[in-house]
């Protein structure tokens, strides 16, 4: 598949056995919350893949706190509370936001006393007006379409315990929502999800991932991701026809096969090249690669050895 020297390749069957308590049944309320994220999420995946993953994240969380405590004691200072940041990368439509929301729910259930928050880097894409001004509207999602300086400042502020505002992107309006922000205020755990979280921003000295305590790359064969992209496009059209303000409204009320043809073209000319040129090359930087097959089922995991 790719150079695995740095990774343990762990088939799903082995992975589920690594955490002996995987049979612990989730409560009805937990299941209902998970179902509400996406009614097609496989609960087997939750038990076999995500429960052990939350356990592994718990190990990293404890290790991070121990290290900070020991370093503070070395310096003779009181340890600061430093948020644990988890990055989630992967292609457009591979399922990053679904994975991130699922992990947020599971981490919150596991650590009820901790504040677990989530942002997506979609909010750091320049508004369409600015993309047009720069003549890069057709490059949405490519590195130059993000205000990476702003994303770095945001992550730096969070790590330093300062409140920070994340702008919000809407798939429905296909644009940044003006004057709307997610306020992130001293979380214990912050999940940062986006196609670009493992990229080195141009004109910057820092990776956003320098602030991460753990990172996950959600992976799948391109043909499957394209299918998921087109499925999501059809779902967007199914809801868009009721709302003339929706970006997809004209496509929703028009000829469906023409609309799907357009989506295929967008995949072929924008999201596919972005995947090959800028997203896939960051896979080797992740601490864990979550590999999915048909129906989003996870079949293999690659865990970084060191
Ligand atoms: N585990 C899963 N089970 C079932 N369906 C899923 C799962 N993960 C994602 N999907 C579906 O796949 C499609 C893409 O998922 P999602 O929107 O989470 O992707 P994404 O990587 O966040 O995309 P983008 O970068 O464009 O925001 C959606 O239609 C979503 O409902
Ligand atoms: C917002 C991003 C870049 C990432 O989520 C993506 O969903 C997107 O809009 N890509 C641009 C091409 C398109 O799919 O319309």
UniProtKB/TrEMBL annotation:
Reaction(s) the record says it catalyses: (R)-pantothenate + ATP = (R)-4'-phosphopantothenate + ADP + H(+)
Keyword terms: ATP-binding, Coenzyme A biosynthesis, Cytoplasm, Kinase, Nucleotide-binding, Transferase
UniProt subcellular location: Cytoplasm
Enzyme class name: transferase
CDD domains xrefs: PanK
Family: Belongs to the prokaryotic pantothenate kinase family.
The EC number(s) this enzyme carries: 2.7.1.33
Gene Ontology CC: cytoplasm
Domain Phosphoribulokinase/uridine kinase per the UniProt entry, residue ranges: 85-232
GO molecular function terms attached to this record: ATP binding; pantothenate kinase activity
Residues making up the signal peptide according to the UniProt record: none
Pathway: Cofactor biosynthesis; coenzyme A biosynthesis; CoA from (R)-pantothenate: step 1/5
Recorded name of the encoding gene: coaA
Keyword ATP-binding among record annotations: yes
InterPro entries recorded: P-loop_NTPase, PanK, PRK/URK
UniProt cross-references to HAMAP family, sorted A to Z: Pantothen_kinase_1 (MF_00215)
Name listed for the protein in its UniProt record: Pantothenate kinase
Main location: cytoplasm
Annotated SUPFAM superfamilies: P-loop containing nucleoside triphosphate hydrolases
Residues annotated as binding ATP: 90-97
UniProt-listed Pfam families: PRK (PF00485)
A biological-process GO annotation: coenzyme A biosynthetic process
């Amino acid at each position: 598949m790719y150079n695995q020297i740095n990774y343990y390749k762990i088939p799903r069957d082995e992975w589920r056995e690594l955490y002996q308590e995987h049979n612990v049944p989730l409560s009805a309320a937990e299941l209902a919350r998970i179902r509400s994220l996406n009614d097609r999420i496989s609960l087997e995946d939750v038990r076999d893949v995500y429960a052990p993953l939350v356990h592994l994240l718990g190990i990293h969380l404890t290790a991070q706190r121990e290290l900070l405590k020991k370093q503070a004691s070395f310096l003779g200072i009181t340890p600061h509370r430093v948020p644990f940041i988890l990055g989630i990368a992967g292609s457009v439509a591979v399922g990053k936001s679904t994975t991130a929301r699922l992990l947020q729910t599971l981490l919150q259930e596991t650590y009820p006393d901790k504040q677990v928050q989530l942002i997506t880097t979609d909010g750091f894409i320049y508004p369409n007006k600015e993309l047009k001004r720069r003549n890069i509207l057709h490059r949405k999602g490519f590195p130059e379409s993000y205000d990476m300086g702003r994303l770095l400042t945001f992550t730096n502020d969070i790590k330093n315990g300062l409140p920070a505002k994340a702008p919000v992107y809407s798939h429905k309006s296909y644009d940044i929502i003006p004057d709307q922000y997610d306020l992130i205020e001293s979380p214990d755990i912050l999940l940062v999800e986006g196609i670009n979280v493992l990229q080195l921003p141009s004109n910057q000295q820092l990776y956003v991932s320098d602030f991460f305590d753990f990172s996950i790359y959600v992976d799948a064969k391109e043909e499957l991701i394209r299918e998921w992209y087109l499925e999501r496009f059809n779902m967007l059209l199914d809801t868009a026809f009721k709302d003339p303000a929706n970006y997809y409204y004209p496509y929703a009320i028009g000829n469906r096969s023409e609309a799907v043809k357009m989506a295929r073209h967008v995949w072929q000319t924008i999201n596919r090249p972005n995947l090959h040129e800028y997203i896939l090359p960051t896979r080797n930087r992740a601490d864990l690669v979550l590999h999915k097959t048909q129906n989003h089922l996870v079949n293999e995991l690659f865990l970084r050895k060191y």
